[in-house]
Amino acid sequence: MTVDWGWFPDHRSDLVTLTLDHLSTAVPAVLFGLLIALPLAVIAHRVRPLRGLLLGVSNILFTIPSIAIFVLLLPVTGLTRTTAITGLTIYTLVVLLRNTVEGLDSVPSKVREASTAMGARPLRTLLTVELPLAFPVIMAGVRVATVMAISLVSVASYIGYGGLGQLFTDGFQRNYPTPVVAGVILSLLLALVADAVLVTIQWLCTPWLRRRA
Question: Is the pLDDT at 213 greater than 60, yes or no?
Fold first, then answer.
């Protein structure tokens, strides 16, 4: 396999555009997934009979092939970015929901009891005690979901919103490996940079862990 390295500077603007397009699909999917997962995780944590149902449904959705999800969504949302984001959001849910539930479960019951004894209402206890203590576990799920979303965006090239996935399609159709290599390299770099950003956010948001270290 011969790679034409001169192709990269000649297509610099296209690569930047596709990279930004890739991010504009992956990032909203993770954010929407987190917004949906948080309340569902609180329900699953506090209403035990619903725990198995919510986690089971998310697991079932995760088993559906990504292309199949996009195809199923097409009659509803059409050939739009909404289809790509919705499909990816469904995939992130299984990771985000499970990690958020596990994070809330990891909060010691004595900490909740102490908060209640001090007169804090359940919502305040959740926001000021439980979620902050569960934050590292939740962020671990966000990191996995983000890398997964960045990887799966390429599949959305099937409906024209695959970002860097268009490089794979172009390379395979023309039997020209250079765009494929470019797509792989940029996807890996995006995943590494995104993970580094999330690690930094976690480090900044958990000063108590820094002090303990």
Answer: no
